[in-house]
Amino acid sequence: MAKFLAKLLGCTLPSKGASPMFESTSHSRVGLKASTKQKTTIFSTLANEKSLSDCKKEQQWKPSMYSSITPICFASPLLEKPVGKESMPQTPPFSAMFDSSGYNRNLYQSAEDSCGGLYYHDNNLLSGSLEALIQHLVPNVDYYPDRTYIFTFLLSSRLFMHPYELMAKVCHLCVEHQRLSDPNSDKNQIRKIAPKILQLLTEWTETFPYDFRDERMMRNLKDLAHRIASGEEQTYRKNVQQMIQCLIRKLAALSQYEEVLAKISSTSTDRLTVLKTKPQSIQRDIITVCSDPYTLAQQLTHIELERLNYIGPEEFVQAFVQKDPLDNDKSCYSERKKTRNLEAYVEWFNRLSYLVATEICMPVKKKHRARMIEYFIDVARECFNIGNFNSLMAIISGMNMSPVSRLKKTWAKVKTAKFDVLEHQMDPSSNFYNYRTALRGAAQRSLTAHSSREKIVIPFFSLLIKDIYFLNEGCANRLPNGHVNFEKFWELAKQVSEFMTWKQVECPFERDRKILQHLLTVPVFSEDALYLASYESEGPENHIEKDRWKSLRSSLLGRV
């Protein structure tokens, strides 16, 4: 993981002739140190801190509407009928969870808080002890935490403790404080609290399902769910079964996806190795497989959305987890660094960049190379119009790699006006100002979309990771008094929640298995092989290039 982060964070934007990965300077954030009728396109949318540690006036729990989000495993609300006068706590969609400042300003309207150790400013939670924050997560008869708090705390808590440790504490508070283990407890009280606990577990399993790959998590979940379902209400038992079955389906789908990734990785071969055993004349290029650049952009969007969908929100935090200074447990906290889907997505970006460079360097004739460059310019332009910025940047990156950019005779035959426009849109100056403006336009279009196509927003992923990295590095997780710096985590949750909204979009384009298979499995050149192909196409221009050409011919082809 450290090697992956070093690659991701230590690279620079390719002006002509660099590697596929990029570098950025972060925006200033809350609590951060400042650091340095045609087809629709996104062009057409463009004071005093108050201590509340003595007592709590409990926040009254009131049901609301589900708004536009539908629970992943249920077609209807969790309970089929109200419990007494109250129904299950309903929650808003991710896009409505945070306002522009980074957190929901209507969360905490009570003047006092009995949990102790929680500090507010203007009715917004800024910090608190870890124990107090955990207690604030657990519902009681008259209180249910807002979804913004649930998401933010479940996301950030893993910086301080393992998810299974948090689950154990939550179970203990639910069982002991709500007297679920007492056979003589008030059945009416259990009837009121049980649906809220079940809702909390549902929020957790739906939003952070990968936490439950840990057997300790699943064991605690089933134990607490069994206590809820052991009562007289048949509905509870039915909904507990639905929740667990949905979770198991998600985990099974994840395992299947990881098996497919592993299979693709194990069968990948260097293009040069293939060429040694297969004559170049029968090598199919991308235009042979898909002559229409618009179709290729759509198939790239399929791959992007599928891979985005399998990235858990916790992976953004786990990528940068470090030892909590107040944690005396010397055990390997590195176990929390489970980021394989995030890493696989970044690897896909690099593969696409190398695929573009390979396809351009492969043709022997100059006019064929020029045609390939113009083809990928059209693909990149359509990716931009779709809102697929990750594929767009990967294509630009591939065309800016040194083996491609040095082909001056080839580029002289290319009409580069459209490419210049795309490069301008993705210009890294002013912290990618042009790209961020285009991204906001795509996000705004998504909010008011009338079709599935208009909902697509696929961010330039490496830059998103770096924004989160700089946010995490820019201010401490804990304040000098030992409290958790929750203001930082509101902003972190805001950024990740935007991603959660974007990754849930279903791709509206028809799948083409032949094209997808080619994109995912066709061998690509290594960096050395790219340089060799480039020199073979257009000879070395200086002594340095000549020496490298001779060295590559000797090492890769066995020629002098």
For the structure shown, list the relevant keywords.
2% strand, 4 strands, mainly alpha, RasGEF domain family member 1B, 4-stranded antiparallel beta sheet, guanyl-nucleotide exchange factor activity, 23 helices, Son of Sevenless (SoS) protein, Chain S, domain 2, Ras-like_Gua-exchang_fac_N, 560 residues, Son of sevenless (SoS) protein, Chain S, domain 1, 54% helix
Overall strand count: 4
CATH superfamily of the domain at 286-321 and 338-525: Ras guanine-nucleotide exchange factors catalytic domain
The sequence of SSEs as H and E is HEEEHHHHHHHHHHHHHHHHHHEHHHH
Radius of gyration, CA atoms, in whole angstroms: 27 Å
Within the largest sheet, what's the order of strands?
1-2-3-4
Task: Output mean pLDDT.
Answer: 78
- State the secondary-structure class: mainly alpha
Distance between the termini: 39 Å
Unreliable stretches covering 5 or more consecutive residues:
21-92, 100-115, 330-334
Helix percent band: 40-55%
CATH topology of the domain at 286-321 and 338-525: Son of Sevenless (SoS) protein, Chain S, domain 2
Which overall shape is indicated by the principal axes computed on the Cα atoms? elongated
Helical stretch tally: 23
Question: Which band does the percent of strand residues land in?
Answer: under 5%
CATH architecture of the domain at 286-321 and 338-525: Orthogonal Bundle
Largest sheet: number of strands, sense, barrel closure: 4 strands, antiparallel
